[in-house]
Amino acid sequence: MKKKNIGYRAIKYLISKFTKNILENKSVLNISLPVFMFDKRTLQTAFAHEQKLAPIFLTKAAFSNDKIERLKWFTTYLMSFLHFSVIQMKPFNPIIGETFQCRIGNLKLYLEQTMNHPITANFYGIDDDKLYEMFGYQITDAGVTPNTCMATRLGLYFIRFINDNTTFRIRIPDALVRGITMGDRLFSYENKCLVMDTTNRICSFIEMNPQQKSSGGGIMGSFFGSKKSTNFPDYFQGHVVNSKYVQVDENGSNHTLLKGYTSICKISGEWTNSIRFDEKEYWGIHDDNILTMYHDEEYMFPSDGSLRTDLQCFVKGKEDASQKEKERLETRQREDRKLRAEWAKKNNKDK
């Protein structure tokens, strides 16, 4: 099915459902999105897919004795992460308690859905040689207009190098999708992202798609003065700096680089193509060595997202059956939420 037809089908479907629910005196808040708008993955699977180069760059970082060099390789990992995170269709939202586990190279990764409002998943990953571990939780939220979707990913995302206990924290930029219902479908990253070495107090501060700000001046624009940033929405630029000059926006991605900083090195590139530190390339699309992600089916939990009935029907092309299963699971989820709320109210009253 062509993507251009999906927006029209979605609008037609939602209007039909909206009208039907009103006529039947049902809530319009519980209208289930049509499965033809969805990707054949859950959010958990999409997160794991983003890690396809993680073992390569995180291993390089683990073996780097110089703290700046390690930060460079870690920042390269983040850009490879963004490179694989592009998604044009909506992933299936995991159900509370749903899990996903996989192996990518020498990395074992585990995820569990722990909350639905907001959508929250906890994750843990560890390298076979115990070079590093990743852990934390990710909150996914989205603001939607008739033709755009801005996705924000918050939470706490840490990676610790086990040998010397150096810990890094990541802040991911916002993802903007245009052309949901009409026009060309375009994907870009907006605002800023951070890679923070919390142990050594150094940070990669990166501005995504900086064409409007840099062409008009300002700290970042005047420092680089690059015309390239006005032409390519996948372009990014930034600095490695002391962390004391970075003001973190804990509620979003509008982080601030404070005046008076000294640039340890410059960062530039295109997240679709490459990353450079002081013009030395650390990763380019031409040298990709993408690792395979696979399930360890022998130890798969019954709660694994790949076993969902709506997803299994959808993967097999059974759209109507998938829609019915999706609505059944969503109804059960709302009933479970109601029971939890009633239990919490009762027990809080008893206290």
How is this fold's topology laid out?
Elements: H1 3-23, E1 38-42, H2 43-49, H3 54-62, H4 67-83, E2 90-92, E3 99-104, E4 107-116, E5 119-127, E6 132-144, E7 148-161, E8 166-171, E9 174-178, E10 186-190, E11 192-197, E12 202-208, H5 211-215, H6 218-224, E13 235-242, E14 246-247, E15 256-257, E16 265-270, E17 274-277, E18 280-284, E19 293-294, H7 309-315, H8 319-350
Parallel strand pairs: 1-2
Antiparallel strand pairs: 3-4, 3-19, 4-5, 5-6, 6-7, 7-8, 7-9, 8-11, 9-10, 11-12, 12-13, 13-16, 14-15, 16-17, 17-18
Helix pairs in contact: 3-4, 7-8
Would you kindly provide a written description of the structure presented here, covering whatever features stand out?
By secondary structure, the chain is of the alpha+beta class. It folds into 2 domains: 31 residues, no CATH class; 263 residues, Porin, CATH 2.40.160.120. 30% of the residues lie in helices and 34% in strands. The protein has 8 helices and 19 strands. The strands form 3 sheets. The chain has a 15-stranded antiparallel beta sheet that branches. A hairpin with a 3-residue loop joins strand 16 and strand 17. It is globular. The chain starts with a helix and ends with a helix. About 5% of the residues have low confidence.
